[in-house]
C-alpha cells in the first residue's frame, strides 16, 4: 500500500518545468525576478531617493550616508532622524544592502554618486562625519597623544613649577614691593614721596626735582599748587608743555586721592579683583569688556587704552612728557573710526597694541600677551569659518545672545564670590591666565589646524 502523500502546488510547477526544454529552463534560472521590486522599497527617508551607501542604525532604519552626515552636522545629535532613537557606537555602511541596490538600480546609483561628489558641502559633511567616527573609534589611551598630549605635558610641568615658586614666594615671606603711593593718600605724602612721584613722570622732570626737595613740598602743599605757582620761583617751570604735564598728572592725583597706577603690577596691586576680572573677560569676550570699560571706567582706563592703541597722527612725534596730556584728551573722529574698525574686526589686536606699548616696562609679560592675542584671533577666525562652512550664520544672533547672558551671569557671580576668595588663590588664577593660557591656546590652535572641520560640540 502506497504511503499517503499531500498535494503541493509546487509539484505541478516542477512537472511543468520538467517538460520544458533545457535551454528555456536555463534562461529562467538566470533571469532575476525584479519585476515586482520598486524604488520606494529602497528609498531613503531623508531625501526620498534611492539609498546610496545605505547606513543602518541600531534602531533598524536605513539612510544614505551623506544624508546621515548632514543630519549629524546640523543637529550634533547621535540619534535617528526618523524615530529619534540614539544610536550606539558609530554607524557603518550596510555592505549587503549596498551591493544589492547597486545591482538592481545601477544607473540611478551612479547618477547620484556623481551628484554627491560634485557637491562640496556634502563632501565636507561626509569628511567631518567620518573623522568624528575615527575619533570615537580610537582607544582612549591614544586619543590624547600627538600635539595635544605634548602640550598637556608641558602645561602640567609648568603648573608644578609655578606652584612651587608661589609656595616658596609666600612661604619665605618675600612679597612683591609695589609703590606705596598707589594706596597712600596724597595728603599724607612726605617730601621724599613727592620727589619720587615727580621722578616717575619721566626723565624730563630731573631739572625740577631739586627745587621741590629744597622747598620740602609734601602732599598737602602739592595739592595747593597751580599754574601760577609752578611758573614763579622757586619752581621755575617755564616750559609750558612740562608745566601742563605736571598739572594734568596732579589733577589725576587729586581726583583719585592716590597716585594712579602706571604699569601692570601697580594696577594689579591697586585693583586686585578688577585686574583679575579684566584679564579673564578680555580673553573670553574682548568686545563686551571694552564696552564695559567705556561705560564704567571711561577716563581712567578707556581713554588711555584708546589713545595707546589708536594714537593721534599729530601727536606721534611729540616728546614723552606730552603723553600725560594726550591720554585725557577726547579722541578725534579719525581715532574713533580706527578704533571702531579694530573693535569689531580684530579686538585682540587692540590688546596686543596696548601690550606692545608696555614692552619697556613689562618685556616678557607683554610678549606673552601679544602671542596670546594672536592665538585668540586665530581661534575666533576658526569659529567663524566653521559657521560659514556649515552655513549656520543664521544662528549667530542666538549664539551672541547666549554668550552675552553667560558673560553677565559669570560677572555677577564673580562680583559676589570675590570678597571670599583668598588673595593667594586670586594670584594663582592671575598668573595662570597671564602666562599659561597661551600654552593652552597653542594646543587648541594645533587641534584646529589638524582637524579644522571636525570640532563636534
From TrEMBL:
It is found in: Endoplasmic reticulum membrane. The chain crosses the membrane at residues 148-171, 368-391, 412-434. The keyword Transport does not apply. It is an enzyme of class 2 (transferase). InterPro entries: SAM, SAM/pointed_sf, Znf_C3HC4_RING-type, Znf_RING, Znf_RING/FYVE/PHD, Znf_RING_CS. The keyword Endoplasmic reticulum applies. Its EC number is 2.3.2.27. Keywords: Apoptosis, Endoplasmic reticulum, Glycoprotein, Membrane, Metal-binding, Transferase, Transmembrane, Transmembrane helix, Ubl conjugation, Zinc, Zinc-finger. Gene3D superfamilies: Transcription Factor, Ets-1, Zinc/RING finger domain, C3HC4 (zinc finger). This is Bifunctional apoptosis regulator. Residues 189-256 form the SAM domain. Membrane-bound E3 ubiquitin ligase that plays a role in several processes including apoptosis regulation or reticulum endoplasmic stress. Has anti-apoptotic activity, both for apoptosis triggered via death-receptors and via mitochondrial factors. Contributes to the dynamic control of IRE1/ERN1 signaling during ER stress by inducing BAX inhibitor 1/TMBIM6 proteasomal degradation. Promotes the activation of TGF-beta signaling by mediating the 'Lys-63'-linked ubiquitination of TGFBR1 which is critical to activate the pathway. GO terms for cellular component: endoplasmic reticulum membrane; nucleus. PROSITE patterns: SAM_DOMAIN (PS50105), ZF_RING_1 (PS00518), ZF_RING_2 (PS50089). Interacts with CASP8, BCL2 and BCL2L1 through SAM domain and also with HIP1, IFT57, ESRRBL1 and BCAP31. Interacts with NGFR; this interaction inhibits NF-kappa-B and JNK-related signaling pathways. Coiled coil: none annotated. Its main location: endoplasmic reticulum.
